Amino acid sequence: MALLLINIVGIFAFIGVAYLFSNDRKNIQWKSVGIVLAIELFFAWFFMSFSIGRDAVKAAADGFAWLVNIAYQGIVFAIPNWVPATSAAGGTAQTMNFITSALLPILLVVPLFDILTYIGVLPWIIKWIGRGLSIITGQPKFEAFFSVEMMFLGNTEVLAVSKTQLDTMNSRRILTIALMSMSCVTASILGAYTQMMPGEYVITAVPLNILSAIIMAAILNPVVVSPEEDTVATIHNPAEEAASGEMKAQKEPFFSFLGDSILGAGKLVLIITANVIAFVALAALINGLFGLTGFEWLTLQNILGVIMFPFAWLLGFNPNQAFEIAQYMGTKLITNEFVVMGEVSKSVLAHQGLFVSEHARAVLTTFLTSFANFGTLGMIIGAFKGLVSKEKVDYVSKHVPLMMVSGILVSLLTAAMAGLFAW
């Protein structure tokens, strides 16, 4: 009971931290924030505690697992010695490595989601979910659309297809978009996550992240949008654009589009692989340098654990558990989620050590399920440089610390909401 109360206090503490960092406290729309918070609380309860909700997220997680197993058939055809003989696809390896289990299936999943976008299915879903979210929460239309789009398509991809809209927005609204971009997770990469962490918690984190991002952006950077400004200049929907005659360029032939998608997926696999290898090696190098001091306790993990400890404790853990969770949280923020998932995956899936607790499994999984880290800052700033004026880019760049605060607080709020119903 005591830890549950701490978890509840943590939710309000994270909102309080956002208030302290807000750049316009007088204009925070607390009614809108309260509505979104209530909706998020309902979704957390529905997906974590209600049988229908749990069945829904389990079905979604099983769907991704099914896709990944199909991807293994393609992997076995090309490199059978990378897939275990025990797999349904029937490889020849003794065990499955990180690249095979988590990354190579991206070569199927990314093109699949791109095809759904090409034929207009995903844009249609995004449009109506975004419209409903705007009406219910009172958020500006484009910001509501964007919060949903980035969870399916990724931050830089959505920014790229939103150039016309971004050109019409002032610098403060652009900053809101930047804050929200820190907390996205691409649907096409969820399959990789579900191979390393409990799928039901990975899927649950997606809608919770959308709502947490809206809450934190509304507090950290309140923006009053007039009815005249509250318009959507463009929604990335090739099917509707073609039907209405608004498309300025001819639609790319399908197989050319598919080839580009597969090439993009391959680049993504290489980028993630390179990042994981580099970050793990750099962390080991830093620990090696610390080791030269003779202080055995001086490690990167311990330093990060101390920094993140208060926040981990507020997620409903005793001090010992909180310090271990804090180490993983801090490592994720300075590297990326794959580094931590790769480290804890076996223990989480086997319910060993700290992760005997369902609360620990739910909290860490939902915290990790986002792109919130220092590397994402560079991606977002880089994307804006090619899309908006230098004045707007400079304004966003001045608020980089606020962007990092937003990413951390969104992950914490999502984890706190999920943890509230997992004990």
UniProtKB/TrEMBL annotation:
What are the GO MF terms of this UniProt record?
Answer: nucleoside transmembrane transporter activity; symporter activity
**Where in or outside the cell?**
Cell membrane
**How does the entry describe its membrane topology?**
Multi-pass membrane protein
Pfam families named in the record: Gate, Nucleos_tra2_C, Nucleos_tra2_N
Q: Any idea which UniProt keywords this protein has?
A: Cell membrane, Membrane, Transmembrane, Transmembrane helix
GO CC list: plasma membrane
The main place the protein resides is membrane
Keyword Transmembrane carried by entry:
yes
Look up keyword Transmembrane helix and say if it applies: yes
> Superkingdom of this entry's organism?
Bacteria
Which family does the record assign? Belongs to the concentrative nucleoside transporter (CNT) (TC 2.A.41) family.
Q: What is this protein called?
A: Purine nucleoside transport protein
Q: Which organism is it from?
A: Weissella soli
